[in-house]
Amino acid sequence: MSREEVGSGQLAVRLGEEGAALRQAQAGLRRLQAREQLFGRLLASVNALLWAYDWQTRQMLYLSPGYERIFGRPAGALPDALADWLACVHPDDRDYVLGSLGEVLDKGAIERREYRIVRGDGQLRWLSDKCYCGDPDEDGRARIIVGLAEDITERRQLESELQRLASIDGLTHSSNRRHFFECAQRELQLARQYGTPLAFLLLDIDNFKRINDTHGHQVGDQVLQRLADCCVTTLRGGDLFGRIGGEEFAALFPRCRLEQALPIAERLQRSIGALGFAAGGETLRITVSQGLVGLEPDDADLGALYARADAAMYQAKRQGRNRIVRL
Ligand SMILES: Nc1nc2c(ncn2[C@@H]2O[C@H](COP(=O)(O)OP(=O)(O)OP(=O)(O)O)[C@@H](O)[C@H]2O)c(=O)[nH]1
């Protein structure tokens, strides 16, 4: 075989090898492109936003297409995206968002990070924005934070509605016993802390059993509802009020001495006495007995205040009902 023939044979082999390598590279490229398209479709279809932020350069590196949908704004130029992001955060939550972003550098991950944003159309939305931080580079400097933000507004609304429902009395829509005493406990702590006065009132409908027995439970329920409405409108803004038993209600007057609470109890007595209920062709009137007490230095807890108000209220019953007894 001549030298020329050997040379052209080697060239053909090399060309063949290079052609195979090229086809392999092209197939690899097609697979990468297909995978990129798949990721693109996945990111565009999930109702969440993936993001990456370079803590070192203070620049957003990546925002998935969810940004436009969740924030209701165009993605804009990447370098400004963090500023854009913060501008959309509710002003009261901005410090928290920045602070927790820095915190993730120490903790490695923040699983619960919830705050409010204002969308492009002005709507207020709640975000759950978990974030994670990778290990530092070899030079120990570059820090990339990645995050997953989801719109959780509906969940937050549901939670607060459940909370509201768990704290109100289903019939009168006033605070239920548990919620009333929780709030009263907080007020008592504040009164102790700041040395301010506080008054506590128990109010019980007189002969309510007779109303039920004579006119039926429906009329009884109506009495409870209207009495509660009447108390809420008669009391002042900062006062607490709740239904703590069948026909028993309680009120707490923060920063109010016993003498200052008395005119309020008297006003309640008059407003309730003026209520009229249509029952069996006549107008039914109701009265209430009230026990009113003020916080005293010896009162160890809310229980002590409650016990004295209860004793005062039963004294009012024994004295003939339709009256206020102070203790
Ligand atoms: N309609 C109605 N009645 C209720 C409700 N909860 C409790 N009651 C009734 O309230 C009545 C309370 O009766 P008592 O404890 O004997 O008190 P009272 O008749 O008001 O008598 P005094 O308190 O001594 O004036 C009972 O008949 C209970 O059935 C309610 O949600 N709706």
UniProtKB/TrEMBL annotation:
Gene Ontology BP terms = cell adhesion involved in single-species biofilm formation; negative regulation of bacterial-type flagellum-dependent cell motility
- Check the record and name the Pfam families matching this protein: GGDEF (PF00990), PAS_3 (PF08447)
| Cofactor(s) listed | Mg(2+)
Location (main, coarse): membrane
According to UniProt, the reaction catalysed is:
2 GTP = 3',3'-c-di-GMP + 2 diphosphate
The record's GO CC annotations read:
plasma membrane
TM annotation in the entry: none
Q: Which residues form the GGDEF domain?
A: 196-327
SMART domains the record matches: GGDEF, PAS
> Residue limits of the PAS domain?
35-108
UniProt EC number: 2.7.7.65
Entry GO MF terms: diguanylate cyclase activity
Where is it localised? Cell inner membrane
Give start and end of each PAC domain.
111-164
Q: Which PANTHER family match?
A: DIGUANYLATE CYCLASE DGCM-RELATED, REGULATORY COMPONENTS OF SENSORY TRANSDUCTION SYSTEM
**UniProt cross-references to NCBIfam families, sorted A to Z:** GGDEF (TIGR00254), sensory_box (TIGR00229)
Protein name in the entry: diguanylate cyclase
Please give the organism.
Azotobacter chroococcum NCIMB 8003
